[in-house]
Amino acid sequence: MDRTLAQRLMHSAALPAIYERLWRPALLGLAKGPLGPTTAQEMTLLRGMLVLAPGARVLDVACGPGNVARALAAHVGDSGRVVGLDASLTMLAKASSESARYVYRDRLRFLRADAVELPFRPESFDAVSCFAALYLFDRPFDALAAMAAVLRPGGRLAIMTTRRAPLLGPLNEVFGQVSGVRMFGDTEVESALCRLGLTGVTRRTTGLIQFVAGQRPETPRVSRAAP
Ligand SMILES: C[S@@+](CC[C@H](N)C(=O)[O-])C[C@H]1O[C@@H](n2cnc3c(N)ncnc32)[C@H](O)[C@@H]1O
To answer: Boundaries of each Methyltransferase domain copy (predicted)?
Structure first.
């Protein structure tokens, strides 16, 4: 399948070098709008959505240069693990080199894979995050299903992605086709999580960005017949 403009950028050698400090704050800042959360506030929001406990096993899908994975690794304790997964070798190289200097580096692992074909057993993770990436995927809803499948019962999923600009109407689709950045309908991601069986699904919006979270239900308790 041909790569979109946005996907080609993600695989370039140049973008990983400027992504975390320039590209992300500038473009996401614009998309979040003047009242949107700062990057630090976004990470606090993310941790709130994932409810991490010491020892948590976390998967960060489409980790890019590892910025979100590192922000999570500080909160899983020494026995916790954060796996950052991405399709781009150049992003993963940056993730590894940046993380080598990081105090919690032993809690981090990075690997190359596609978000739709997650190379993990079902129910392997306590929490899964996917920030600033779902809008780039060719098959975003299959990726959401793959993320839900690797969550343990009771585990939580947190997504940050785009939303359609209400005033732009059909121009949202034109923008998506030209740039490769898909603009999701207001209830599209939320409904997808509900269809996947996640519960307590919440959604918060700021500008052209939405944060959506949900929890995989605990395994239903089998009630035993009284003797
Ligand atoms: C904009 S970066 C997001 C980095 C980080 N999650 C953040 O919040 O800043 C998007 C990443 O998605 C990755 N990506 C795009 N399509 C993917 C796919 N199908 N599977 C895995 N990663 C993908 C790109 O390689 C890129 O590193």
So the answer is: 58-155
